[in-house]
Inverse folding.
């Protein structure tokens, strides 16, 4: 009778432990689900921020590229204008064919070594 009471107590304890294990597994599943949702939310926010930063940088780079292109065009235009002006001077002086013209060309940097 004492053995039967002890066996009954053990069965009741075992049933309680099984219920507790089941409850803990459910709690673990809920915690894991909550953790995944939290990580997903944080990840989505980080991805959104990174995408936004990337777009901002791309826009700034495009603006820089346009500015640099315009500066290059302006610089090339300035060089062309300067070259045309110097070529006009050379032409005028060569039409006159004077020694003054030769000396003036050398003074402006258009002598024999003007390009070297």
């Amino acid at each position: 009778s004492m053995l039967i009471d002890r066996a009954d107590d053990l069965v009741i304890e075992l049933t309680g432990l099984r219920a507790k294990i089941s409850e803990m597994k459910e709690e673990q599943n809920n915690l894991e689900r909550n953790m995944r949702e939290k990580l997903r939310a944080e990840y989505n926010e980080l991805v959104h921020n990174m995408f936004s930063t990337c777009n901002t940088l791309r826009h700034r780079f495009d603006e820089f590229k346009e500015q640099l292109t315009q500066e290059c065009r302006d610089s090339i235009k300035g060089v062309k204008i300067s070259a045309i002006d110097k070529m006009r001077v050379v032409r005028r002086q060569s039409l006159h064919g004077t020694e003054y013209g030769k000396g003036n060309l050398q003074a402006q940097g258009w002598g024999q070594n003007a390009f070297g």
